[in-house]
Amino acid sequence: MKDTMVVQAQTIAGEFLQEQVRSSYPIIGKGFVNQVCLVETERHKVVVRMNNKVNYPTFIKEKWCIEQAAATGIPGPSTLSVGVKDELAYMIQTFVEGDNGLDSKVAPTDIWRKLGEYARRIHSIQVAGFGEELIDPILRLIQDQMAAGKDMCSITSIV
Question: pTM for this one?
Answer without folding.
Answer: 0.79
